[in-house]
Amino acid sequence: MAFSVSVNSTKIGIASDLGCITPVVVKEMSGSSLMFVEANYDERMLSEGNYPDFLKRAIRSDHGHLSNDDAGSLSRIASSDGTRMVVLVHLSKDNNTPELARSAVVDQLDRAKHPQIEVIGHGEAGGPFALG
Description:
Elements: E1 2-7, E2 10-15, H1 23-29, E3 34-38, H2 43-48, H3 53-60, H4 68-78, E4 85-89, H5 98-108, E5 116-119
Parallel strand pairs: 2-3, 3-4, 4-5
Antiparallel strand pairs: 1-2
């Protein structure tokens, strides 16, 4: 799913369980003040992990999940000067860590203007997130 909600000049974008980044997703997420972006798996951890091959293929498929690199790409493409925070969500318990997710996203963002990055680990609660 991917959608955005706008109230006055504040836009919040949410993208999770996508499998791939499409032009429509980028359009909906672009210009968000706050973005929630799935960073489900680290490619190396998934490749080397114990999941059966059919499940690894499903996770990587266009109907599966976004990887850390995908989350970085979406965050980079959709963020603007008005993007204040990117919150990474839906991290796999077995195939990711908050540190790997954060690093992958920060590496793709323009360091001069990148937004604050928050990570909500598997089974953790996050927020509230203030934009004012």
